[in-house]
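Technical note accompanying the year-one report. For the benefit of new consortium partners, we illustrate the data format agreed upon in the data management plan: each record pairs a sequence with a structure-token string. No post-processing was applied to the example shown here.
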Amino acid sequence: MRKSFLDFARPQISEEDIAEVLDTLRSGWITSGPKARRFEAEFGAFVDAPAALALNSCTAGLHAALVTAGIGPGDEVVTTPMTFAATVNVIEQCGATPVLVDVEPDTLNIDPAAVSAALTTRTKAIIAVHYAGHPAELDALREIAGRRDLLLLEDAAHALPARYKGQLIGSSDNPTSFSFYATKNLTTGEGGMLTASPEFVARARIFCSQGVDRTTWGREELGRRCQYSVTMPGLKYNMTDIHASLGLGQIRRLHEMQARRKELVAYYRSLLSKLDDLEMPAERPHVEHAWHLFVLRLRGALRGKRDLFARRLWERNIGTSVHFIPIHMHPYYRDKYKLGANDFPVASDAGQRVLSLPLYPGMSMRDAADVVEAVLDVARELCS
């Protein structure tokens, strides 16, 4: 057993990252300004986005996209139950109605056939979540959205730098929201990025700046006496230069960090796939997985023992997490919309079996070996 606890996730902060943040702190400008604009430009170039807007969270990006698209009371937004609450909370915050549909059995991404079947005259948008870093089936979803003139919004909190049929997630005109939370493949501590067409981003920028038509840094550039106007009741969703500075350092090392994630995933697969009671995460041939998460599903003799399995790993100093408790199992959504496990059988089943293992670039191969040893040891113990 390990002598020290292995965290489920740990941010990879380099001396270069720290130097970039210190430069900002010493500059005298620490809120949204030149570093945030640089980060927008560098991130946009990295994913080949038409335009990018740096924000304080992925949630902000999702909310801003819905508001910018005019989603509101009376509208329905179709999305997945296999996600974090933020994806659905923003629909409620717009006054719209979330319509949950089931997921595909292999990737746990939203099922396009279920989306198509759920459309009504009130449907105005689809939110696709790229679960664990595996892109959803965008061609099918784009066809559905295009046929009905619906907004297709991508929740890419897990999906940097994933590719769908060779194209990076975030490179299309439709709005896509990324997360830079502490556990993500690129972190700014807290933060997010919305990518979309230049026109869409320009409108979203106003909403995310309290509805003001010119940002504080924009007024600084033009002179302190520059006038501004409030054009809508916006919110304060901007990213600070302090957070952006950390992102600037991180994005320079993202390819390197991603290569390490892939090495760890290959190691996990090579050893854990030998046990039939452990279902490996899927990767379809036409996608490039971001590998934000390595999600096992317990089956066979391990079915129904997920929480015990996690506890046994914790006792062996191995951290884990659960992604996710499906939305329809949470009291607010379950009770308000009268939802039950039978409404989404695939998501309901997965929600009882998923367990995320440690996966981050700072892990050594000894760390990975400790994870594998503990997982196999616990699996054999609970199967006996």
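Partners are asked to follow this layout when depositing records. The chain has two domains: 15-251, 254-383.
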